[in-house]
Amino acid sequence: MQIRRSLAPVFVMTTLAAAGAQAQSSYNLYGVVDLTLGSFQYSGTEAGTDNKRITKVDGNQMVTSYIGFKGVEDLGGGLKAGFVLESFLRPDTGASGRNDTLTSGNTVVKRADVFWGRASNVYLQSDLGKLTLGRQGNLLFSHALGYNPFVAAFGLSPTIRLTFGKWGNDKGDSGWSNALTYQTPNLGGFMATVQAQFDESPDDSEKPSYAVGASYVAGPFAVGAAWQTVRSASDPMLDLTMGQRQNFGLLGVSYDFGVVKLMGQFGKIDNSGYAGGARIETTLYQLGASVPVTKDGKLLASFGQSKEKAVEGGTTPDTRHSILTVAYDHWLSKRTDLYVAVMLDDEKLPGFKKGTTYVTGMRHSF
Q1: Measuring CA to CA, which residue among 173, 151, 182, 171 is closest to residue 62?
Q2: Separation of alpha carbons 267 and 161, rounded Å
Q3: CATH number for the domain including 248?
Q4: Phi-psi category of 24—alpha, beta or left, where left has phi over 0 and alpha has psi -120 to 50?
Q5: How much is the pLDDT for 105?
Q6: What per-residue confidence (pLDDT) applies to 53?
Q7: Distance of alpha carbon 235 from alpha carbon 110, whole angstroms
Q8: Whole domain around residue 251: which residue ranges?
Q9: Residue 76 zone, left/alpha/beta (φ > 0; ψ -120 to 50; rest)
C-alpha cells in the first residue's frame, strides 16, 4: 500500500506532462497486414522453379505488409517537425523484411532488408514545402504506383513487377537510404519534388543518385512524370561499381470518368557501364482500369509489358515480358478488404512457358 501511495504523485505528474506534450505533438502506431491463399505459377522453364505450380499461404500480394511509428510536433508559425520509422514484414511466416538474401548459385542477387527498410527519416514542413532526411520512399516509385490500379502491389501489379519487382531491371529499389528530398506545396494542383541519395563511398566507386518529378491534378484528370539517375545503391540492392549508371524515366496519366477510371504509363530504363547481360535498355508500358461495380467493390484490370534489348555488345537476347492481372476488391470497412485475382505471366524466352496465378486474400490496415 505504501508503494502505491509513493507512486501516485509520480503517475499524476507523468500524466499531466504527457497531456501537455500531446497538445503540441501527436504520435501514431500504424501499418497494414496483407495475406493470401493461392495457387502460384510464373513464366519460366519446366526445369526451373518459377513455372512449378505451388499452392501456399503467402503475404504481400496486394500490398507489402509493414508496421510503422510516426510523430509530428507543431513548432509554431506554420512549421512542423516529424519522424517516420517503418519496417517491412512477412505475415505468413512472421519474418521481418520483404525477403531473405537472394542468391543465384554462389552469386548474391539481392541482400535482405535492413530492419527499418521501408522508412527511417525526419522532416520539416511549412507553407514553403517539405524537407525530408534519411531513408525514404523513392521518388520514381511513387510515380510508378500512382497511375496503375494495383498501386504498390508487388505481387499483382504489372507495373511494379516489371520495374521494381523480381523481374524488373530497376537498380535503385523502392526506397533510398542516405537521401534528402524537397517537395513543394500544392500549387493549384501542381507539385514538384527533387531527391538526392548520397553515395558515402570513401573510394568514389559510387556517385550520388538524383531524381526529379512533377505532377498535376485537375479534378478527374491527373498526369505525372519522374526521372532518376542511379549511380549508387544501398541495402537490399547490390552496390554499383565505378562508372555504372542507370537512367529511368516514367510518365503516367489517369482520368476518372466516374463509371471507370482509366490509367496509362510509359517508361524507359537504360544502363551504362555494365557488362554482359546487364548491358540492356528496357521500354515498358501499362494500361489499366478501375471500375466501381458495387458501392463497396471495384473491378481492377491492368496489362503491362516490358521489352528488353541488348545494347553496346550486350549478351541478353531481346525479351518481351507481358503481365495481365484482373481482380475484384471488396471493402468490408474503411480498413478491411477482401480480394480475388488472376494473373497471367508470359515472358518470351527460349524454353519459357506461361504461368497463371490465382489468389484470394485479405488486407487490414490499422
Answers
A1: 151
A2: 14
A3: 2.40.160.10
A4: alpha
A5: 78
A6: 97
A7: 8
A8: 37-63+129-365
A9: left
